[in-house]
Amino acid sequence: LFTAPHAGTFVFAWTVVVDATSFVFSELSVNNVAMGNVISDSQENNEYHTTTGMVVAQLSHGDVVKVRSNPKVTIHGSVLSSNTHRTSFSGFQLY
């Protein structure tokens, strides 16, 4: 979760790692409006799967950015974050 401290153009990236035989549809939203999404799907190959998404967004002061699972799609399996597999969310102000 990130709340914009001031207006500007920001770049956000998120990485989702799913366990074997898992399926997760994740999205980055600004004020609960989807701005980008990725599908992490290891159901076919029975291995861990990593997916990264990136969004450039013009934000106003107080806008809230978050990564969430898509509320319209059912998650199957597990999202991982460990010493060897890291699910993450990051961002920076471009200008």
Automatic annotation (TrEMBL):
Keywords assigned: Signal
Domain C1q residue range list: 1-95
Signal sequence segment: 1-20
UniProt entry tagged with the keyword Signal: yes
Coiled coil: none
Keyword field contains Heme: no
Xref: Gene3D superfamilies: 2.60.120.40
SUPFAM superfamilies in UniProt: TNF-like
Pfam family membership, one: C1q
Protein name: C1q domain-containing protein
Native species: Magallana gigas
